[in-house]
Structures are given as C-alpha cells and as structure tokens.
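Write out a sequence, fold above all:
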Amino acid sequence: MPMELAGVRSSSRGDEAGFPLSPSLSLSLAARHKSRCSKAAFSLLLIGVKAADFFALPESLASFRPFFSPDVAPWEWLSQIGPALAAQRYDQPLPPIPAGVHLEGQVYLHPSVQLPHTATLIGPIWIGPNTKLLPGCYLRGNVIAGADCVIGHNAEVKNSLLMDGVQLPHRPYLGDSILGNGAHLGAGVVLSNLRLDQKNIFVRLPTGAIDSGLRKFGAILGDGAEIGCNAVLNPGTLLGKRALVMPSITVGGYVPPATIAHVRQAVDFLPRRD
C-alpha cells in the first residue's frame, strides 16, 4: 500500500531497480527515526540510494573527499561543490593563458591542462591534469573537473562536478550535475536543471518520489553512463553505472545500471510530389 511520509511517496516495488523497500521496513524506519532525523536524512533512509551506488571520487580529486561522502544521496553533493572549492588553494602559478581566454575569480588549472584560443572561465573553478578545454567553452562558477576530461567547444557548465575521463566534446549544457568517471555526452546534450514552474525538483525512483529540496538540479550520471546526441534529461534525472540514453529523446526519472533508454518510432518514406 503506498504511503506518504516526510515528503516521500513509496511502495513495495523498490526491488525493480535495486532499491528494495518493504512496507514493514518503511514503518519501522518511521517509528525509529522520524522524530530525530531531518527530512532529507529520513527520506534517504527510505529510498536507500547513495552516491557510492553511482561513482567513486577518483584519486585526482582526493583533496575534495572530505566534502563528498559516499554514503549520502548523490544530489546532496551539489550543495558541497562551493564549500569544497572554497577550501582549495589558488596560489599556484597558472599555465600560459592564451590572449582570448578570459579568467575571472579563483581558478586553478593543472600545468598539463590544454587551453584553447578562446574560452571564458569564471571561478571558482578547479581543473585537473590532462584535461582539455575546447574553443568557446563557458565555465561559469563552481566547476570541478578531474583528470583527462574533455570540455567541448561552446560547452556551458555551472555548479557541476566532473570525475576522471568525462567527455562532453560538442555543445552541451550542464547545470547542477554530477558526472561519474568515464561518462560521455554526445553533441548537443542538455542536462536541464530548472522546472518550468521553478518549484523544487523531485527525484523519481521506483520506490517513490522524493523532494530533493533543490530548485536547481540537473542530472546524476554514474560511472560510464552515456547520452546520445541531442538528448535532453529532465531535471533530477539519475543514470546508473553504464546506463545509456539513445539520441534525440527526452528522459526523466531513473535509468538503472547497464540499461538502455530508447523510444521506438516509425519513419515513413513518401514520394516527392514536385
């Protein structure tokens, strides 16, 4: 029987996607924890999903580990990006900066970072070793990128964490998102981060829907997740490890690990009449 508790609508169907939740467990948790847990913490107990289910912070980002617990809901990492960046040092010498690259605020660039002839980097920003920035990229605050990433031409990124080997080479938009190791975005992908009505974003899992408490929340991509060209992810979308979204579709909710999200459509061929 569905129940509503602490902002969560849950049911016993959680075993469909690896988040088991029985009514007896829900009621037990309610009795033991409701009086002493915050809404977010109590909701996390109900849904049983945590950042470690999606990714592990790589060695290149070891200095950030105190801020990103593997045992919290992955979207809770979004509010930690700013504090994590504020705790870093920015007094190291920068690599040579091309004339067309605009820097503003606190920016750390590893000496091996490859810079284009044009880009706009508004801090705080931290870019790890061997990451490549392509022409026209726009990083506008609270951006962390690990090692060996590609941030593509005309890419717009804000308040996001990219782990090692993330590739977004062609015109993507990333807002308020976490991308796991080796995640890949095809050309023109949009990780939408704001509802049209600008209300809080709900995370929709097989166990129910939970209010994230966030007005801006893009997507969580597990290690090795991929999104095809021109696909759009609705706010609050979660992709498990190695999940795949096919091109030119809109996806929301939760895509389980090693699962393909696709749409079957028929294409008709008609003779020209001119």
Observations:
- The CA atoms of residues 121 and 139 lie 5 Å apart.
- Helices lie at 23-33, 39-47, 81-86.
- The domain at 59-261 is CATH 2.160.10.10 (UDP N-Acetylglucosamine Acyltransferase; domain 1).
